[in-house]
Amino acid sequence: MPNRPSDAAAFVAVAEKLTNTHDAAGTAGVYAREATLELVTDGAVELHRGAQAIADAWSTVLGAGARHGFAVRKEIVAVDDATIVNRWEGTFGKRQPCRGIESWRFDEDGLIVEHRAETFLTVRPAHELRAQLRLLFGAPRVALAFARARRR
């Protein structure tokens, strides 16, 4: 039976601290040997399987974060017997707002067996021209569908 940490708020606080101190070894140390880490960054998907691949991924992500001032604030969204879900907001660099959501699933030993993290690096109000152009060029059908729906 899965066994998530008993204090979900403390787990998320530690995850926030490890992220903000860019501690790749500490971050990777809480995964089960055969865990999976799925990182989705602005639509680009990476899947990492196994402890070594996850350690390498965190070394890359948090190394880049350290060089560019990546910092986050995390808060719990939902908790059940096996899973913790949190959202986060932060910055990449001095003025680049970003946000995301994570889900963490645990095994019977309390280790992470599945972690999914979705990151949105370019976060702007939908009414801004740059946001609208980004959507138009990145997903033209979606942008046009939204535009048509707004006119109705």
Write the layout of secondary structure elements.
Elements: H1 8-20, H2 24-28, E1 31-41, E2 44-49, H3 51-68, E3 71-79, E4 83-91, E5 97-106, E6 112-120, H4 129-138, H5 140-151
Parallel strand pairs: 1-6
Antiparallel strand pairs: 1-2, 3-4, 4-5, 5-6
- The share of residues in helices is 25-40%
Overall, the morphology is: globular
| Rounded mean pLDDT score | 91
Give the second-level CATH assignment, the architecture of the largest domain: Roll
The CATH topology of the largest domain, please?
Answer: Nuclear Transport Factor 2, Chain: A
Termini gap: 50 Å
Q: Tell me about the largest β-sheet.
A: 6 strands, mixed
What's the CATH class of the largest domain, please?
Alpha Beta
How are helices and strands ordered from N to C?
Answer: HHEEHEEEEHH
Strand count = 6
Describe the structure.
This protein is of the alpha+beta class. The chain folds into two domains: 114 residues, Roll (Nuclear Transport Factor 2, Chain: A), CATH 3.10.450; 28 residues, no CATH class. Helices cover 38% and strands 36% of the residues. It contains five helices and six strands. It has a six-stranded mixed sheet with strand order 2-1-6-5-4-3, covered by helices on one side. Strand 1 and strand 2 form a beta hairpin. Helix 4 crosses helix 5.
Question: What attributes characterize this protein structure?
Answer:
2 domains; 5 helices; six-stranded mixed beta sheet; alpha+beta; single chain; Nuclear Transport Factor 2, Chain: A; 152 residues
